[in-house]
Amino acid sequence: MSVPEIEVTDVPAGAYLLDVREQDEWVAGHAPEAVHIPLAELQARVEEVPADQQVYVVCRVGGRSAHAAAWLNHIGRDAVNVGGGMQSWEMARKPMVSETGQPPFVA
After folding, report:
1. Does the reported pTM lie above 0.85?
2. N or C, fewer C-beta in 10 Å, the chain?
3. How many CB atoms lie within 10 A of CB 95?
4. DSSP string over the chain
5. Rg of the chain (C-alpha set)
6. Quick check: 59 and 45 in contact, CB under 8 A?
7. Which residues are marked as active site?
8. Which residues are bridge partners to 67 per DSSP?
9. What GO molecular functions are on record for this protein (predicted)?
10. Which pLDDT score, from 0 to 100, does residue 1 have?
């Protein structure tokens, strides 16, 4: 199954950004507007993901988010994989925050 993919620089402002990384990765650095639902919890928490707008899914490098986007599309959602994940996000110098008190980085 082919999954739509977008470059980090093309993610629109105000987009619903779903981060499916693990808790430690999230804490180290994430996009300020992202919503965190680890991939292992996605099926149980899918009702938290909006059904009425496009969802941009991100992970560390793009593998987990591609699986999540494929599953979301399979169940009728409109999901796009963010190619290169948070590593590309960081390289593109897009805004990031951390919850550690230290500068954000991609764990």
Report:
1. yes
2. N
3. 10
4. ----EEEGGGSPTT-EEEE-S-HHHHHH-B-TT-EE--GGGHHHHGGGS-SSS-EEEE-SSSHHHHHHHHHHHHTT--EEEEETHHHHHHHTT---B-SSSS-----
5. 13
6. no
7. 59
8. none
9. transferase activity
10. 59
Amino acid sitting at position 83: G
- pLDDT digit string, tens, across residues 5-52: 999 999 999 999 999 999 999 999 999 999 999 999 999 999 999 999
Nearest 10 degrees: Cα torsion 18, 23, 24, 25 = -10
b/e for 40-68, b at 16 or more Cβ within 10 A? eebeeeeeebeeeeebbbbbbebebbbbb
Tokens describing residue 14 = 């105000």
